[in-house]
Amino acid sequence: MKIGVLAIQGAVREHVTALQKCGVDVVCVKKAKQFADLDGLVIPGGESTTIGKLLVRFQLAEPILRLIAQGKAVYGTCAGLILLAARVEGSEQFLLGGMDISVARNAFGRQRESFEQELSIPVLGKEPFPAVFIRAPLIKSYGSKVQVLARCNDEVVAARQDNLLVSAFHPELTDDARMHSYFVAMAKGN
User: Fold this and answer.
1) Pairing status of strand 155-161 against strand 164-167
2) N or C: more exposed end of the chain, with fewer CB within 10 A?
């Protein structure tokens, strides 16, 4: 099992550490040829507009879209969620798309309004998950194929659609590897 972490911006090292805790081989992906033998890919948080421009500049969008089309698991956290969305309110930025969601950027406020919230995420078990929100987006609407995994103050903050997983929060910034374990299980076909 080999999982890639898109390594052009964001919390790359933290995702690598969390995935290694799950017992998988991890590669930092910066070039198109590195996608060939991946079982899954994490698109980390960062600045979604910048990441989108870099995906285009370095010709990395097509390999990601091929992974998605092949049914490989792709997990987007924060900015990664935005990039996997079909629509972003008030923005014409580059999107990979693929997930039938509409997203609002920075919906929980600016950097200084960052917070941690214990969330109920039933697919991870009964114990609450310590979710870290930093300039987090919000899923405003979603299609019938989207499974809502978590809410914060009645707002959708994590979801799954087939082989795509997204979270508005940063699980890589906690010691709890359950979100990454769930993603690894998806990559294994569960």
Assistant:
1) antiparallel
2) C
